[in-house]
Amino acid sequence: MPDSTTSRVSLTLGSTLESVDTVGRTAEDFAQRAGFDPDTVPNIVMAVREAAINAVMHGNAYNPVKRFTASFQTSSDSLTVRISDQGPGLDPSSLPDPLAPQNLLRGSGRGIFLIRAFMDEVHFRQLHPGTELTLIKHRAPAQPAA
Amino acid sequence: MSMKVAIRQVDGVTILDLSGRITLGEGSVTLRDSVHDTLDKGSKNILLNLAQISYIDSSGVGELVSAFTSVKNAGGELKLLNLTQKVHDLLQITKLYTVFDIWDNEATAVGAFN
After folding, report:
1. What is the ipTM of this complex?
2. Does domain A7-138 fall into CATH 3.30.565.10?
3. DSSP character string of chain B
């Protein structure tokens, strides 16, 4: 189990929605133990779940042979989550802007947008095959005593 | 926890009381089927009560948008009632707060249907 200083865990999971739930629970556990405030924890969980959904649905396309990995690491000042799949690869620049008027009523296409909205840093890396998303949330610096 | 739906009629409006999570998979499918069943029965004024919805992901947001479009295309109206703060924030971030007709009082919401 993670503690409040430095810890890490890595999961290798099947391409199922149950795996997404597992990743979500792990994200909640790490975020809470890392000391993020109660308003921030659900946002981190949502971002990590969206990344896992992306890996399962768009990356691995629910292929039972393909696995995805989720690694979690806390440091003194941040939480880093890496999600990698075995899919055809994702070009983030090709994603339509879900806030554009012509896309507002689309029934999909908001996952990466929400990840970016809730995390401080989001990085994409092509794995050939596959994509790795790195999500980083920094802890706010402690306020000096008055 | 998956999503549950209770359906009731108030003054010609079909109110769907939703509870649980609207997420990729079961929750989104349940919402889609419930809205389509309501339309198939001829009810075109639909109020989604989200007071007991604890979590919505991007798929759930997309399903709300699809429901809105389906009802509008059928010549009806779909409104939202009793958003939790998290759902409210999610609709703000995605700019959908201006798309949906959102209410926090059931009687007023029912009266707002044409």
Report:
1. 0.90
2. yes
3. ---EEEEEEETTEEEEEEEEEE-TTHHHHHHHHHHHHHHHTT--EEEEEEEEEEEE-HHHHHHHHHHHHHHHHTT-EEEEE---HHHHHHHHHTT-TTTSEEES-HHHHHHT--
